[in-house]
Design goal:
This protein has 3 helices and no strands. The protein is an all-alpha fold and about 80 residues long. The protein has one domain. The longest helix is centred in the last third of the chain and has 15 residues, at about 65-79. About 0% of the residues are buried.
Amino acid sequence: REGSPPELPADHWLIRQAATLTGAAPKTAPYGTDASQLQALAPCLILGPGDMNQAHRPTERVSLSELAAAVPVFVRLLS
């Protein structure tokens, strides 16, 4: 079952904070996540290391350097 796409207003604090921490502009993405169901419980933001071109493939992976760079972003975002 497909859910509604997770959506937050562009000026939502979570979007603003993620953009500040990553230096990247927010964007939409054409794929589904569990956020479709979880957005009923809390605001959802899809954010993380890796490359969607490698997702859901036998060679799916995230480099240790990308993962290490993401940890402080998650810590600050959740603080």
